[in-house]
Amino acid sequence: MPLNTDVLWYKDAIIYQVHVRTFHDSNGDGIGDFPGLEQRLDYLQELGVSAIWLMPFFPSPLRDDGYDISDYQTVHPSYGTLEDFRKLLESAHERGIRVIIEMVLNHTSDQHPWFQEARSSQDNRRRDWYVWSDTDTRYKGTRIIFLDTEKSNWAWDPVSKSFYWHRFFSHQPDLNWDNPAVRDQMWNVMKFWLDMGVDAFRLDAVPYLMEREGTNCENLPETHEILKALRRKVDEQFSGRMLLAEANQWPADLRPYFGDGDEFHMAFHFPLMPRMFMGLKLEDRKPITEILQQTPEIPPSCQWSLFLRNHDELTLEMVTDMERDYMYDMYAASKSMRLNLGIRRRLAPLLNNDRRRIELMNGMLMSLPGTPIIYYGDEIGMGDNILLGDRNGVRTPMQWNGGWNAGFSIAEPQRLYAPLIQDPVYGYPAVNVAAQKESEHSLLHWMQRIITVRRSTAVFGRGSIEFLHPANHRILAYLRRQGKDTVLVVNNLSGTAQAVELDLRRYKGNILIEMFGNNIFPRVGDLPYLLTLGPYQFYWFRLRRV
Amino acid sequence: MEAMSYGPSGAELKLEDESFLSDDFLRQLINVGEVDILVGLPTHNNAKTVGSVVTTIRSGILRGFPRERAVIINADGGSRDGTPELVTGVSIDDMRPASNLYALRTLHSISTKYDGGAGSGGALRTILAAAELLRAKACLVMSPEAAHLQPEWISNLLRPIYRDGFDLVAPTYRRHKFDGLLTTNLLYPMLRALYGVRIREAYLPEFGFSGRLGSQFLGQNGWHDGNDQAGVELRLTLAAITGGYRICQSFLGEKEHIERRSSDLVRALRQTVGALFSALETDFPLWSTVTGSKPVPTTGSEQELLLDPIRVNRKRLRERFSTGVAELQSVFQSILSTSTLAELQRIARLGEEEFHYPAELWVRTVYEFAASYRKSVISRDHIIQALAPLFRGRVFTFLVENRNASATEVENNIEGLCLEFERLKPYLLQMWKSRE
To answer: Which residues are CB-contacts of A410 (< 8 A; sequence separation ≥ 6)?
Structure first.
């Protein structure tokens, strides 16, 4: 299957997020690798994904799961070789699957040769590649992101006897983007991978590139200038490639990252995700519609990126204190489930393994405006292990079957990079791909089906959204429109059956065709359109005038 | 949220006849769905006050129960002044965010018209039916005239139910010592003596109740009997007592004094004393065996009295007492014992300085009225009307006795009257049986 040549391919994409380390181990060393991932591409193709997003696979001390890069232009030896990566890229493209890779622009590992040089002497030619200071009092207005581990954004370097700036862990010094040499070098890094054929970058931590006194050092105009310059180069030299922003910000602050369609193609909609969980628990659409009503219009060529869970904690930075307390109480009763300002759990455990709620959340993920991202393993309802530190509990090996090491690796179990999930509910004997392939009604088959239905129309990826506001607040209903196509989505956020009356008079004369079973529902008339929905049920209807 | 079921058997909805709810109201209830908290607001042309009341209710809900599913239900008696629109205007949803409040979830504020006109039990019946259909765990009825309403009142009345498992929360207030005279001179002491429970404000302008009590009351109350519609709030209190439900009091703070026309007294007597007298017949097996009284758990002060001056036309009270005793002599002859009537006639002839309606005579009067209410050739409504001038005479004495009294002294005097009601309870039993 050749790659779709549409330059807006990302709008219709189904993205699958995976860490090479976690997916499949081909050489029996206990760590997933590129050849292993390549072997599993058929699975992803069957699932219906059209792009994979690979978490950092570069050489790294792995103190932050690879986001602490020590060499940008090769791959970590645990995952294979650069040639292995090339082969993966080719194989993915042959299956019509694009490849998105990480690019950490903001900082490097303190083990990166650039930093080692920079700290070696105040006169070193790379000294100015990082942000140094004689005091730890500059940029006082800047928040600390990793509150649980860091006390300051400055760290003392005993080698060069000065402080260096870091927005994340202290072993991740921030690059100095004021330095033109840094800008040139980082473009060279990006170009290296684009030349190889990668289709997109997820640019990590972009709000923090620049620092200016008297500001909070986030979302600065100078940062946007840098990003626009990078985008220009991508467009000029690599048409059809895509830039995805990781900027955990409020919608209004996110909007500038799209520019006039000249900065990022896509950006994560961080505030939406916790509100979907909140709306589900409250059985009330208000949190969801409120945040989407606050979400500004974006240029036509741009797209939001939606997700339910990812490799990080379920971030609660973009909620109010009251909402955060509520989320903690509802979804992370045990303090061990909490990390920084978030909840380090997977989708299925968050939803008490309730198949109906898992389906509803995925239904919303697939039908709200944006491109959905599925976190590896969530398509089979994998669990987590909160006894593993940091966010490692949601990064355990993929569960392929009920056999040796869940089919992930032939290594001795104790050599695996992380222990398998083994509890009775989510353990690999109970939750695995092979078993779910065998079962017609498995979550995996359901996920394949919903992806197929989603991909059957461009309306979900490209259409407008209009919320209906039925008086029953447990019902989240919206119309997605694209050209002549109109789809009505009705979600019951409640655990009980609900009746709802929808004002569809504008569509009088249309019949509703339920998109999963293609069954016909009654014609829309002058009266409010009455629907009943079972607990957590949702409908997608195609409107058709007959 | 966990589902709950109500009803005496803990089983299912037992609304036998919900046809009194309009289709439109049912549609609104469907949209509201199951709730944890329900605030009922009976209204009839209350546009002057209801706006601030309902805004305060909303604040109280958002502050006290931000996570709970809540609804405000207005049962309106046919207002023509825009009252229902003021109530529904405080809804919070994704179309109408509260500008200065943060709300985690949707708050419905809905309105329906009930049949029966102002002041009937129809409003409470509608609210109770809605509470049952919505499976409300904790309910509250607020007065649309509660000018001193504070957001904290909402928590104070609901929390004992929602968090502590009580079924009825009666309010106590900070009142002027001469406010609520019907309560202090008749309702409180008589109810206490008969039912053995010290509930200060048994005729409830604001009160909280559990879903299960509301459901029980909805099922048992004689809603189709027009006479029983009056005083339905008092009947709810009695139902809680006789049903063995958990009752407590909650201190709310200042209660505004509302000037009433003298004609309001008869109406108030019908709704309170009439309801109480009426209940005595069915509740006889209970109250006839009760001796003494016990306090109920109270959060905050039990009652606080203020000593600010308040204008009362004492002279007119005594005049209307004397006139009443003279004009209603033939009626009194059918209600009162000879000795009681003679004593009343004697004091009716006294001048203002000498006039005194002693506690014991007052208690005997009330008890003889109660016994007569059960079986008399005179209509019950006439009996209640006949009590009005006598009550005015008693009030005159209360005002004189407490003219310069401190709050503590007033409380002591009220306590003394209560004890008199308890002491003379055998007299009521004797009168009661003599009329069998």
So the answer is: A25, A28, A404
